[in-house]
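User: Could you check the structure of this?
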Amino acid sequence: MREEEVRQAQEGESLRGQVTTADRVRAVLLLILVEAVCGLAFYFELHRAESGNALSWAYVFEWPLLGIVAIYMMWKFTHPDTINQKKKPDKPLDPEFESMRQAWEESQSRLATSRVEDVNGEVS
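Assistant: Sure, the predicted structure tokens are below.
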């Protein structure tokens, strides 16, 4: 199991696991609260703008946008597997930089190993 955790850490995957159902329920409840606040703020600013407060027109458009951003962020949090991460093709490396790349990869491997040891409670 330990080698699998090191591989995941090296590939940038989370060591903490997937989003649980309880996390998703909390995210949806928080989203409902945020959307309610954004809706009330929109309603409040719309009435202020209609009564002559010119600055409130900016907020009339801002609050719905914040609500949309909240929906987007909740979706990204609750569905981490749907994020499209396209990997760029590897370009050939100039031979003079090959030793630098190898040293960097070794340091990344040591860092991933130390992170796994920290998670498992082991002392380096």
